[in-house]
Design brief:
The complex is a heterodimer. Chain A contains 15 helices and 17 strands. The chains are: A alpha+beta, B alpha+beta.
Amino acid sequence: MKRTLCTDKMLGEYTYAVTDNGLKIYVMEKSGFSSAYAIFGTRYGSIDTKFSKNGGKTVEVPAGIAHFLEHKLFESEEGDTFQRFAKTGAYCNAYTSFDRTCYLFSCSSNFEENFDILLDFVQSPYFTAETVEKEQGIIAQEIKMYEDSPGWRVLFNMLCAMYENHPVKIDIAGTVDSIAKIDHNLLYECYNTFYNPSNMYICVAGNIDTDKVLAQIEKNLKSTPPVEIDRYSFPESREVLSSYTEQSLEVAKPLFCFGYKEVFDGRDPTVKERTVAGLLLEILCGDCSELYRRLLDDGLIGDEFSAEYFQGHGYSAFIIEGESDDPVKVSEEIKSEVARLIKEGIDPRLLNAVKRSAYGDAVKNFDSTEGIVRDMVECAISGGDLFDTVEILKEITDRDIIERLKALDKQASVLSVVSPKKKG
Amino acid sequence: MSLKIFSLTKGVDGYYIPNDRFSTTLITCNLYIPLNAETMAAESLLPYLLSSCCEKYRDYIDLNIRLLELYGADLSCSATKSGDRFHIKLGINVINDKFSFDGGSPVAEAADLLCGLIFAPALENGDFSPLDIDREKRKTIERIEGEINNKRSFARTRLLAEMFGKDPFGKFSYGSVDEVSKIDSDALVSVWRRLLETAYVRICAVSGSYPEKAFEKFADMFKSIPRHDITDTDYFRELPEAKSVKDITERFEVTQGKLALGFTSDLHGSLKESAALSLLSDIWGGGPYSKLFENVREKESLCYYCSASSRRSKGFVMVESGIEEQNAQKVVDAVLRELDDIKKGNFDDSVIEASKKSVTDALAGYYDSAAALDAWYTRELGEPVSPEEASDIIMKVSREEIIEAAKGIKLHTVYRLLPKRGEE
């Protein structure tokens, strides 16, 4: 195992290590803390539906299988993992997103015992035809719950209009039809591909001892040889399929999700590019922006108004969402503001304030073991260092932001609206 | 170091929660007044208005830029029911002075800003500006109308309204659209004065070093106000048992139904008086070891979630579930059957142990979050108990006390939110 100590004189230090078979490990001791938070995760999410292993033939699997696998991994031959954690008092959970699946626990005592359980169950798949069938019922309920969620629908409708091929447009849990095609053999196939140490990471922060954590991993990690995963690159052009999409649901006011598609020509954005994207959104439509004032004063937006840089392997978009009686007008205002900022430049006071705020957020993030571990997972998947943000912020100039604004193509934008059902 | 409580002036207490784990200082001003259905809408709107501008920063964009410059200080406000008291909170979380770039004191500056928002609002000739009022009224109305977007919380709100009837606890905190529309400057100025003059106040600070200037500033401001008729913090209004179970079904355009059951309890009040109620609801439908999770969700696959939670301050328990319509009655029956099982003592000691471990493990974790510590010491009135002391109280609850608590639980209201039928 190779170990590196990463330090920052203000923010502290953490250990980064890589095992011989490629598992990435991040550990940060937080002195004085009462609890610890740990994730054992894999770079495997809902978008990984087409792939090959060790140069073999390309396999295509049903949508929603990563999420399904997450549910099933909690079962073992000896019983339910929740019950094992229940005996220690830890909180345990898991989540699947577009590009990752994470198994986690937090606890204030019995860390070693909990960590043993985590290391064990994530490495011990147990799927049978019977248990897979039972899970299909539970997950179908979960899928239906999301069908009623206007915030979820407005996002996925936008992604469907934005992406022609990329599976980011399909619901993370899949569809009732797609999960019906999942069986235990497929689950094993995906497990054996993506739950390989070379594609995984362990991130821990809190009242722990780094040496003990690393020793526990060395003792419990299976010596599975690394695999080479070739993820299919879904071709995406700069164009969107449709610039407008609408659905009616039981809502009081229209919800909108407006996004600019970004294409990175076969590579994923760097840490600096991601940081610039965050600042750009704050300047463009944060609650200190001219656009925000205009929209709020004109009654076009209310409390529900936010922006996100939405990015993963093979997809990237700037998304602004909220509620409005006139979503089309809001989207026009966003496009005009992009043009205005490019023409008139960025107010230096605002840029300075936004950078100070981003620095403050980076500092505050180290107060939460969960926040630290979330950033560690991001580093494991997208690259970079936990302390990068503070240094990168110093380098960013208005020119970086203007150049990025120039790349926002209004022809490659989508407005998705969820409108209220018409009465009567 | 433990909690320090001191009187700042009549009916105003200072709570200093020493904690040097964080890079931030959190200061909150908590005002408690009696629950009053007539004035609740204006009381809910006021903190949003106060936190949007003030005499020094009349323009909300200027205020927001100031917050960014204070290293992204987080300004927050809320208006919630705490038993039979209405709890209005305004707070600010800011990075500690040692992280400032320029040797300034962000903590003192943030405390000044918070005081300015509360004591020196943006009045013109003694009135709030119509523009500011209209903006906040519109946002509040959108919050009220947007409640339907989250079906789970909507079902909970409807349950409480039906269950508590004319008791103001059942009222939606923001009031109705009609009530909000009628709010004017006179009403808001009157609420603002009444709050400052009569509320019981808790100024809370979670910080590594005692923020002397902040407490002094609040003490000086409250001393300059004629304080009278200070809110009694002990008052409790009991919800009588239902003579017959209230049964409500409403239909909406949804795919998945929601079920919310309300139960009265003969236990209420401080943790010392009603710890058994907390454990009972956790064993019934808290963690994955609970009866509802294990049997209703896992064994019978009747729903994706089915959970119980207690409100000790008002002495009741809610059970919430996402359901298929055809399973609605099965879930109600199963929930009641599991409660009956607890009343009969049909549960293992291992479940009590798992519940106690889970609850106490989570309590220890409170020390790792400034916001959690602040919420802990401000959401309940009466003699404060630390999370550590709460753990001791929980550990002492006996099996018999849990069974007795279960026997004191009576079904009061069943609320179902179901999909519309074809012709509706």
